[in-house]
Specification:
The structure holds 2 protein chains of 2 kinds. Chain A is α/β, with parallel strands linked by helices. Chain A is built from 13 helices and 12 strands. The chains are: A alpha/beta, B alpha/beta.
Chain lengths: ~350, ~350
């Protein structure tokens, strides 16, 4: 099985692979990503499909026997879909994968590529979209050993209510990430790394930084960082990694939020990006594509204070400078800035009683 | 002549040039509203650089949730109108020290807007609280003024302490019908939905010349029905044909209102508050038939900000705009929530 998965990964990393080309052509727009961004995503996602990494995923996460599984996927980024198939293959049990109704091309192509390499492997998966009638899904949930659900917290609660009490339920609900630049790293190099974290996936994933916190007292002030990021770094990077489209309502929301930040502090805008700086040290409310608020903080205490309200949802922090410890329950990744998106989040089995 | 008088003259008589007046209003607001001035300076759009009102920095309604946008000390305001808000989010505020332009907008547009520009008598049946009870609602202010100025004795509000007095309303409507009194039935879209739900098996045939005005959105609330369904209910439950039913579109951040044309869902705005339907990406006007964000320049907003960007989507028509609802990611709000909170 591992060799089949490695072969699938190799194919997807090959720029001449027909299904990869088809995905770049037809699936990128389903995620509102540009071809360049989707291509980068494919390269990152399938870099994990190697023997060593797949072997590491096979460590048992539970003592309970698992004979079947249901995976319910959200559609923010293709990474969740690639991860679900890899993780599902490693589980090696029949499973039902609910894919987002607006993002069907990539999961179907991936399923097809599994079938091309190993019919047995592909047969593990029954892939379907959300339907208006949920009774079929609820019936499956009631008799499934393992349920992995991505999406809004409310959706997850609903799914949980339809699952059996004996099943293992792995919830991947609302999650947010941020970037933190400590004063010793407040420089152009860190900002360049931040650009990749901001631009890849157009900030649509839960691993994308929603906000950048910069410590005062460094080589560049937080205000200067925002200005240099907007005026020097982003304009060159967006040429390499152009933005995709916008979902309905996003342009209106960007218009509104740009003005709010314009009143609060300083705002820099390009055709398809927004950078703002203000001194109000609060977690931002918006989650918009290519929209990066910069906030300054003086001490670690200040930083911890602003993260406090979101600590249950904080999943990833990209760091530059000091490597500090964050004691948050759902924090899965504290990584170097520039690598926030290049992550694979293994399944978190709930603690067994 | 003061700026206020110039605006009043323009509102009443169309005296003067709108662009010149709008630029004067912008200069005044730029000079006296510090947060707005800072914002305009950042955009490098100031009274010295702007020659046409289209270029005046337009302020999205979200900003009113965070900043006091007025040309005077807000602690001296006579009235503070607030957006409805649905949850714990902050509310947008509109400060007034002088109601003369707001009142003028009501005098000039309200009765015309609901199809009652003749001099005949009318009795108002308001499915809302009075302004005396909810002093923060611009809608209830407008309705109370209209009732005081144009309503026959017996006109009244039927909601108090968040409870609609269904029995009193039913009884009064029965009397209106018996006496053949012309009725203006006014409420939020949701108050009508609840009214019809309450009297599920009852209907009325309102006297000839009666009209209805609904306001507030229907989207995204607990029981969603389409505008078309609502108008069908007006016909079947109240005997009011579509040409007797009117929609009003207003918001806390504005001092003037838009009304739908008879037999149509196309809104028009008064001449002192031109509307633009713009592409949110480019800020340019969309073509007729295309969808964009609704922007206003309301001269009657003299003591606040005149150039307002809403979070509402609309399709541009030759003679107005058709409201399509809130842009999907915008914060849900609207007058209807006042009723749904019950």
């Amino acid at each position: 099985m591992i060799s089949a998965l490695v072969e699938v990964g190799k194919r997807w990393l090959d720029s001449g692979y027909a299904l990869r080309q088809e995905a770049i052509r037809d699936a990128a727009s389903e995620f509102c990503l540009s071809s360049a961004n989707f291509t980068l995503a494919l390269d990152w996602m399938f870099s994990f499909w190697n023997e060593k990494f797949i072997a590491s995923l096979q460590a048992p996460g539970t003592n309970k026997p698992i004979a079947n599984a249901v995976q319910i996927l959200a559609g923010n980024t293709p990474a969740v879909i690639a991860q679900a198939f890899l993780q599902g293959a490693v589980l090696n049990v029949p499973q039902y994968i609910k894919i987002p109704s607006l993002q069907t091309v990539f999961p179907r192509l991936l399923h097809q590529s599994l079938a091309d390499v190993s019919k047995e492997l592909a047969a593990l998966f029954e892939v379907n979209t959300w339907q208006n009638n949920y009774s079929d899904l609820y019936a499956k949930l009631a008799k499934t050993d393992l349920i992995i659900a991505y999406g809004h917290d409310k959706t997850i609660d609903l799914l949980k209510s339809h699952s059996s009490s004996s099943s293992i339920f792995i919830a991947e609900g609302h999650a947010v990430s941020c970037a933190v630049i400590f004063k010793e790293a407040a420089n152009r190099e860190s900002l360049d790394k931040l650009a990749w974290d901001m631009l890849s996936y157009d900030q649509r994933g839960c691993l994308s930084p929603r906000v950048t916190f910069i410590q005062e007292g460094g080589e560049l002030s937080p205000e200067d960082c925002a200005a240099i990021f907007a005026k020097e770094i982003l304009p060159s990077r967006v040429i390499q990694l152009s933005r995709g489209g916008l979902f309905p309502g996003e342009s209106a929301a960007i218009l509104q939020r740009r003005a709010v930040y314009g009143f609060r502090g300083v705002i820099y805008t390009g055709d398809d990006w927004t950078v703002c700086f203000d001194k109000e040290l609060v977690w931002p409310t918006e989650a918009l594509p290519r929209f990066m608020p910069f906030k300054s903080f003086a001490s670690l205490d200040d930083l911890m204070h602003v993260l406090q309200p979101v600590k249950k949802n904080l999943i990833s922090i990209g760091l530059a400078g000091e490597n500090c410890f964050f004691d948050y329950p759902n924090l899965r990744h504290v990584c170097e800035l520039g690598l926030m998106q290049k992550q694979f989040l293994p399944l978190r089995f709930p603690l067994e009683k | 002549m003061s700026l206020l008088t110039q605006i009043e003259n323009f509102m009443r008589l169309r005296q003067g040039d709108f662009n010149q007046l709008a630029l004067k209003v912008f200069s005044y607001q730029y000079e006296h509203c510090a947060p707005y001035q800072r914002y305009c300076q950042q955009l490098q759009l100031t009274p010295e650089t702007i020659k046409h009102w289209h270029d005046v920095p337009s302020v999205p309604t979200d900003v009113f949730r965070e900043f006091d946008l007025c040309t005077f000390d807000p602690s001296t305001a006579k009235y503070v109108f607030q957006t409805s808000g649905t949850t714990q989010e902050s509310k947008g505020k509109h400060y007034y020290r002088d109601m003369s332009l707001y009142d003028e907008a009501i005098r000039l547009e309200f009765m015309r807007g609901i199809g009652l520009n003749d001099s005949g008598s009318v009795i108002f049946r308001m499915l809302t609280p009075s302004f005396d009870e909810v002093k923060t609602s611009s809608l209830f202010y407008m309705l109370q003024r209209a009732l005081e100025w144009y309503g026959e004795p017996g006109s009244r509000f039927y909601m108090s302490n968040n409870v609609l007095d269904y029995d009193a309303l039913q009884q009064d409507l029965a009397e209106d019908i018996a006496e053949n009194r012309r009725v203006a039935l006014i409420g939020t879209a949701f108050s009508f939905v609840n009214f019809f739900d309450h009297f599920e098996y009852q209907s009325w045939q309102l006297p000839p010349g009666s009209v209805l005005m609904e306001t507030g959105g229907l989207k995204g609330r607990a029981r969603e029905i389409s505008q078309q369904e609502l108008y069908q209910l007006f016909a079947s439950k109240l005997g009011l044909p579509a040409n007797s039913c009117f929609s009003e579109y207003g918001m806390t951040e504005l001092s003037s209102q838009c009304y739908s044309k008879p037999n149509s869902h196309v809104f028009t705005s008064p001449h002192w508050m031109p509307t633009r339907i713009v592409d949110a990406d480019t800020g340019n006007d969309v073509e007729v038939g295309e969808i964009g964000i609704v922007q206003f320049f309301d001269l009657a907003n003299l003591d606040a900000i005149s150039a307002i960007t809403t979070a509402d989507l609309a399709r541009k028509h030759v003679d107005g705009f058709e409201l399509l609802g809130r842009a999907p990611l915008a914060v849900l709000r609207g007058c209807s929530t006042q009723f749904e909170k019950l």
